[in-house]
Amino acid sequence: MSVASCSRGSVVCDTSFGGWGVLFNPTGTAFCYSTGCLLVAHDGKKRLSRFTKNGNLVHEMGEKSSSENGLVYAISVAVTLDGFVAVTDAGDHSLKVYSQAGKCTLIVKKPFLLPWGLAINAENEVIVSDTNANSLVLVAANFSQGGIKKIVNICLYLSQPKEIAVCQANGSVIVVEHLAKDNKNSSSTRIKILNNKMKILKQIDSFSLSFFLPLDVHTSGVAFDQEGNILVADVNNRCVICLNKLEEGNALKYVVASGLSYPVAIAVIEDGSIAVLDSGNHSVLVYSP
């Protein structure tokens, strides 16, 4: 691996929004192509907030509640191809789906032990990482009517999988495993890249990435950009890096090298910009190419 040029260059921050009073301990973000807005999951009274790319708050939904339709502790958020909002709820160990107006249309609790990350594939199915079951689960459903078509374990024997992303072009899946490191309860991370048949194509551990960064890498967010490159958020080095496409080797480059406090998620926007969710200062930073 080398710190060579990635096809995605460094980016410039042109918008920053959120903070206490708007976002509380944000955990996940996703871009909605049907509305052109960013969805953010956080710990506010309403767990989901929708913002324009310029940072204007336009809608909130997902009431903080212990009721079946409410959100207890939202972790990750994704938007289906037909515009529904999927959320993993670690509070009651469920996957929940909402309409754009905020109506809960689907709740899936079995077989999840602790659902965490989620992504949408090209077939408009939800892939969920279950960190306690060490697996990836595929959920196919009619999101508008709430009917489940199938629920299938598609990848087993992972090690505490959390963050995931799906490449819409070829169906490849990135999954981040969180590995116990020592008796002090610290941990390291490992990135696995799977093809659309769930066969492992490559894995990249923190150690190999750390040769080129000041501190050990701890991956906290992943995404595919529009060119198929892999974007990685690293909380230890407070940065976002880009790994070239698989077929082009392992060259990496900083995308965001400074200005982040505790990046936890990445969303790629329609115009090629990227939104980085910074849990350290409770904000979203949008970077244009």
TrEMBL record:
Organism, by scientific name, is Staurois parvus
Q: PROSITE patterns from the entry? A: NHL
NHL repeats (start-end):
109-142, 220-246, 260-289
List membrane-spanning regions.
none
Q: Per UniProt, which keywords does this protein have?
A: Repeat
Q: Which CDD domains match?
A: NHL_TRIM32_like
List the protein's name. NHL repeat-containing protein
Check the record and name the InterPro entries matching this protein.
Answer: 6-blade_b-propeller_TolB-like, NHL_repeat, TRIM-NHL_E3_ligases
Q: State the superkingdom.
A: Eukaryota
Extract the PANTHER family matched here: E3 UBIQUITIN-PROTEIN LIGASE NHLRC1, E3 UBIQUITIN-PROTEIN LIGASE NHLRC1-RELATED
